[in-house]
Automatic annotation (TrEMBL):
Residue ranges of the TM segments: none
Keywords of the record: Kinase, Metal-binding, Transferase, Zinc
Protein name stated in the entry: MOB3B kinase
Domain of life according to the entry: Eukaryota
Database matches in Gene3D superfamilies: MOB kinase activator
Annotated GO MF terms: kinase activity
Amino acid sequence: LKQVFNKDKTFRPKRKFEPGTQRFELHKRAQASLNSGVDLKAAVQLPSGEDQNDWVAVHVVDFFNRINLIYGTICEFCTERTCPVMSGGPKYEYRWQDDLKYKKPTPLPAPQYMNLLMDWIEVQINNEDIFPTSVGKCKEEVL
């Protein structure tokens, strides 16, 4: 493990972002949150008197929105031609199955997989049985 974490042998390219671009703005936000001294443990702790399911639901939706924003910045570089397989490195390939159009696990290009995934998550988030908009009405067995 020492070889993996040896900073002299780890290639870390410097990232430069053009001012005025979406990436530059995201970079500034990320730097601000990293340098803000925020105690992450305290930031995600359930506030006193709040319903745990409501708290989790808020963070799931926030996480989805952040992932959507991040994906939006890289999707132009991952096309069906440049990313013909949805993978997690050379050892893992993700296949899509939704029991509607794709009844069996199906290999897809990464952009198509991601679009289906983000659409599926959005449907779940908008499902009142899973993420009700009335405070304190969440079904425990779903979460």
